[in-house]
Specification:
Layout: E1 19-22, H1 23-29, E2 36-43, E3 49-56, E4 63-72, E5 75-87, E6 93-98, E7 105-106, E8 108-111, H2 129-132, H3 139-146, H4 150-195
Helix pairs in contact: 3-4
Length: 196
């Protein structure tokens, strides 16, 4: 994975703006053989308040069925999600959810501000805040744009594009030249072998 600003710039919903539930924290709350009821309040994107009720009738190890009821705007959605404890090769356990949509094992499930069902980050096509800010501080062009010197930023970008184009064409010429040399050498070797 890349660092800050890696990836394409965009405006997808970020995971940091969603309600998140970690399987590890769920198993830390547990009592062996006991029940668990937890309430998580949240605020939707339109300012409406809601709650998710997490209920586990009986903790079982290594897999437990988690019932989640999400209520907001007078509506209520129920779903059941499996939480599992997967043994690690060198001891200990890794706690995961089985996503109700794609069936993949995930460390956490999320509830975006516009949804009422819990799922994984991939199913909701979420990203991270740092990825949404990609290209925000790209060298001198970003500095010039920040200072209000858009003409300098544009001309600098043109110079960079031209130099990249020149580098690509030089690399292509070098590869073609090397292939031609390899072909000629192979042809000479075949001719020598036939003359013997």
């Amino acid at each position: 994975m890349g660092g800050f600003g890696s990836g394409r710039s965009g405006s997808r919903t970020a995971v940091e703006h969603c309600l998140r539930l970690s399987a590890r924290s769920l198993f830390l709350w547990r009592q062996e053989g006991g029940a668990l009821t937890q309430t998580i309040p949240f605020v939707c994107s339109n300012g409406q308040r809601g709650q998710s009720y997490i209920h586990i009738a009986r903790f079982a190890f290594p897999s437990t069925k988690v019932l989640i009821e999400t209520a907001y705007e007078g509506k209520s959605e129920s779903q059941s999600i499996w939480a599992i404890a997967e043994p690690m090769p060198r001891g200990g356990y890794r706690y995961l959810f089985v996503c109700p949509n794609c069936g993949q094992r995930r460390l956490q499930i999320v509830l975006p501000p516009y949804a009422c069902k819990w799922s994984c980050r991939t199913c909701y096509n979420l990203t991270y805040s740092s990825c949404n800010e990609s290209g925000k501080y790209n060298g001198l062009a970003g500095l010039f744009l920040g200072l209000g010197l858009s003409d300098l930023a544009y001309s600098g970008a043109q110079v960079l594009l031209n130099s990249e184009r020149d580098q690509r064409s030089a690399e292509l010429r070098r590869r073609r030249r090397n292939k031609r040399r390899e072909y000629e050498a192979a042809r000479r070797n075949r001719g020598k072998a036939l003359n013997l």
